[in-house]
Amino acid sequence: MMYGGMRGIKALIWEPSVLDPEEGIRFRGKSIPECQKLLPKAKGGEEPLPEGLFWLLITGDIPTEAQVKAISQEWASRSALPDHVVKTLNSLPKSIHPMTQFSAAITLLNSESEFVKAYTGGIHKSKYWEPAYEDTMNLIAKLPVVAATIYRNIYKGGKGAGSVDTSKDWSWNFANLLGYDNPQFTELLRLYLTIHSDHEGGNVSAHTTHLVGSALSDPYLSFAAGMNGLAGPLHGLANQEVLIWLEKLREKVGDSPSDEQLKEFIWNTLKSGQVVPGYGHAVLRKTDPRYTCQREFALKHLPDDKLFKLVSQIYKIVPPVLTETGKVKNPWPNVDAHSGVLLQYYGMKEMNYYTVLFGVSRALGVLASLVWSRALGLPIERPKSLSTDLLKKLVGAK
């Protein structure tokens, strides 16, 4: 287990969510279908508002519509960026990766940290959670503005979009800042930001945020560190790699391949030493419920889209092939097998940007947990490491 990346070692406390191998993620005990049913929605909308999920992650309770509206207004009122962050983002070359810009901007926002001010002023440790909460609220409020500024600068020539509307929800404002006015895209964003928010504490972005925060780094620095982990190809780039693989497939067999053509392409992928991106998961042993709810969204809003039809066909073909290899514990699709397809349909073609969207969402879970870490007084994380020689001696002695 030590040589396998500590996979399966139960060694972390994480309050907001737990990942069940059979049922998938549960946010404070609630499954994704339950959250879709119970959490408040925008007027005329069908998908849960991320503000409601954040309330659930922080408090453990399902919020009322009034409570969710209060969070929306609170985040809108805190959304303005300091001048030095705006100037820095506007001065960065377009060639710098969106995630690099995202991490840099979050780090720069550390200048606004209430936690740093309170700690420097001598706050008692029993109250650490209070400025950590203020930083969390401020950071989540500003993330759509940061992310949209990066998007507009890199892909839209720096041209501005709409401004923050205090009467609208967090996702509506994000979509508006990005320059999208399609109500269905806004609904998709609400769903996307909700389901990508948290996936217990062992994944790289969550664990990194927790680890850096355990040294009493403020939420800005802690979250920036987590985003640097999310930027890794084995973590946040997975949905991008799914689309790249799909493009290779389409080049080879077209948009409407036969099942046999698909099987041949999949087997060739595996025989070349590669994996089928978007399939399998370190913990899950059934179809990821995050995949399922995105599939339901697609069936409702884009049932005839060619790329969605291809993904649906792959969903039938890949699991039996992976099972046949005898080497795969989980042959079922995860969230990344579907999310990029939906973004492509609504016109967001810029794959390098997808991890930034993931990062905006992941803030809800990892920062909620960070507040609780400070409230519970969790200590600095410091596991013991061993050399291979010492490990051999210990094993030999037994």
UniProtKB/TrEMBL annotation:
GO terms for molecular function: citrate synthase activity. The active site is at 235, 281, 336. One of its GO terms (cellular component) is mitochondrial matrix. GO terms for biological process: carbohydrate metabolic process; citrate metabolic process; tricarboxylic acid cycle. It catalyses: oxaloacetate + acetyl-CoA + H2O = citrate + CoA + H(+). It is found in: Mitochondrion matrix. Belongs to the citrate synthase family. This is Citrate synthase. It comes from Melipona quadrifasciata.
